[in-house]
Write a structure and sequence with these properties.
This protein is α+β, with helices and mostly antiparallel strands and 290 residues long. The protein contains 7 helices and 18 strands.
Length: 290
């Protein structure tokens, strides 16, 4: 059986995240495969997959920040806020320049309230929003807080009456880049949508560590669970007695983990055992992985 850990995939365009999970189940020889956050079929780049016991760790990794490079076409709005949807409105963007775009980026940077795209996977009364839209419903999703640490222009060019802007975005999990494109176009009064999207980093895992499906088929590279935990969380080294308690999920009395939030605790052998967090004078288990 393939060892527990993460596989960092460079997702190809046209594949759903579920398609990639299906391929990985065959490559890894296990049904226990999951992903830490979807990528739209149009998008490419870093998709983090968990194998075997690491699937249980994925839910604790989704708060990591993410980095993207994208192209936004200003002057056209689409029903999906990206190039896969029909154009619903066209307005000349020939007058725009990078200075105007940079000024419009400022209110979309920092801690903001973002209304997700109506064709997102968010559930409304148990049904995916995109499914409701495809069935002809009007869907209005509620704004949610996200953090956009970086939203910057890297290049631009006029294409007829439209203005294509290449951007780099660093943001919190749950941020919709399509919605940023839509809102940028709206702020500039010309509409906008996403024409290209590539995720270059999820937390500490960059595109330089990702393999294409073809490469992974030749050699399946798995980041071991121990390494994932050390790279993703603060750590605490246990004594033998504490390690025994942790394997049973017991609280660690009088232990100060030193930081708030999840901490990866390790046996004296260096094996990752569990995630713990501070509760007063004690440390208590969030999830045990043995």
């Amino acid at each position: 059986m393939t060892e527990s850990g993460l596989v960092i995939v460079d997702k190809p365009s046209g594949w759903t995240s579920h398609d990639v999970v299906g391929r990985m189940r065959r490559l890894a020889g296990t049904r226990k495969v999951g992903h830490s956050g979807t990528l739209d079929p149009m998008a490419t780049g870093v998709l983090v997959l968990g194998i075997n016991r690491a699937t249980r760790l994925l839910g604790h990794l989704t708060l990591a920040d993410k980095e993207y490079v994208a192209t936004i076409r200003l002057g056209q709005s689409t029903v999906t806020d990206d190039a896969e949807g029909d154009v619903v409105e066209t307005t000349s963007a020939a007058h725009l320049d990078e200075d105007a775009v940079r000024a419009a980026l400022l209110p979309l940077t920092g801690d903001i309230e973002q209304v997700p795209s109506s064709v997102s996977a968010i559930k409304v009364d148990g049904v995916r929003s995109y499914a409701r839209v495809r069935s002809g419903e009007e869907v209005a999703l509620k704004a949610r807080p996200v953090t956009v640490a970086v939203f910057e222009v890297t290049e631009s060019r006029h294409v007829g009456e439209t203005f294509d802007v290449d951007v780099r975005v660093v943001c919190s999990s749950g941020t919709y880049i399509r919605a940023l494109a839509r809102d940028l176009g709206s702020a500039l009064g010309v509409g906008g949508h996403l024409t290209a999207l590539r995720r270059t980093r999820v937390g500490g895992f960059g595109i330089d560590r990702a393999g294409t499906l073809e490469e992974l088929e030749k050699e399946l590279t798995v980041v071991p669970l121990d390494d994932v935990a050390r790279a993703s969380f603060a750590t605490y080294e246990l004594t033998e007695a504490q390690a025994t308690d942790v394997t049973f999920g017991r609280a660690l009395s009088g232990v100060d983990l030193g930081v708030p939030g999840p901490v990866a605790v390790f046996a004296p052998t260096g094996t990752f055992l569990a995630l713990y967090e501070q509760h007063g004078a004690d440390a208590k288990a969030i999830a045990v992985f043995v």
